[in-house]
Model the fold of this input.
Amino acid sequence: MAAYSSRSGCYPEILLDQDCRISYCHNSTSATTENSEGLSVDVSFQIRDPPALSLCFVRCNDLTGQQRLCGEHQPSILSVAGGSVLLLIPFCDDGININRCCYMEYFVYRAGPGAPSLRLLPAPYPPSCSMKVAILPICDDGVEEHYAVVFPFVQFVVLDSRHHYTLYIYRSDSKAWCTQVARIAEDMETQNATLKLALHYPTSVVHAGSGLIGWVDLWWGVLLCNVLDENPAIRFVAVPVPEPCKPLTEFFVKFEDQNCAKRPYRQMTVHNGVMKFIELEYHTARFNTKRRDDHGWMATTWTRPISSDVWHEVLTFDTSDISVTDWSSMHLLLPEIFDGEKKLTWEKFISGAPTLSLHDDHIVYIVVKSVWHQTAFVLAVNTRSLTLESGAQCLGEMIASLEPTYVPCALSSYFGMTAFVLP
Done:
């Protein structure tokens, strides 16, 4: 993918699968610590250039060699920011009943600065949070020496009350937990979103930079919070597309219609002070009479600086506009995507789950999954040249219903080249 450039010779971002593998993969990324029971825990990463997925491996064996990770619940990555990764790891009491989860603990993996490290997040942990847990770096003169872990909890009684958010925060620089109350911002966009704040159910959490965390709900928008400030505030930013329904029926859409997942055709990122949003409109969508009846889609992207109050439409492109730069390589990987005239066809595949690159404004990753079997692929589309640049195969069960388990992140820039493997 020529669109990327890096002095180190590796891409500045990866697509990191948040579902960890229970295995051991020793390399230069490996780090070890102990859990609360004194068991050794190993974490390592296998880094691949996108669109191939990078993987995280977790191992925990007792002195007899018995596995002590719960087999029923997979270790998972909850949040990634800079060189910091927050993991939730389930353990069992013995090596016999591995399918019985007895307790879960949080760990912080740090790729840098310095050698990789792994730390157990000190207990006691806060109560179950209402939104996704987040990690973010605490920078000192541009160096990520420390980190903060944020457990958000929404507190309200009725929808029109002045509810607030309680933030339970662990800071590694003070090695202590603290509690902050985040007020609701007083800007017009936030004040006019009372119901959306109450119904906000984030599907992802992003580090927006400089102490700012964003909780993204692809139905309504993102909640931005300056969690490290002395007086944090919650600000709401709506998505740049029409609302799916009237406010009076929001409850029905949110709680009754469980089949209306937005991730298969929407995504939002926040990076370097800019919010980016993409939506796919399928040609075969119900009531869509503007497009021909096929299996493709039309994509539209928007951007908006965090300091702005206006979204700007950037571009619109269609699957019918996309060509291939290297036909022979792509045909070897995915021959079914071509017709008899060597042109792209989408008839045999379900495609979607767009993922915007953090470091290249012209790259969008698309999931393509066969209708007939579990094989799935992640394709890199260059929206400037309208070309399909590369692709990589992954397990289809990892992307059930076009709900990808991976996230784009810059963790690779904190590793040396020895962390990379061949595609």
Observations:
- The chain has four helices and 27 strands.
- The helical segments are 188-191, 194-199, 250-256, 327-333.
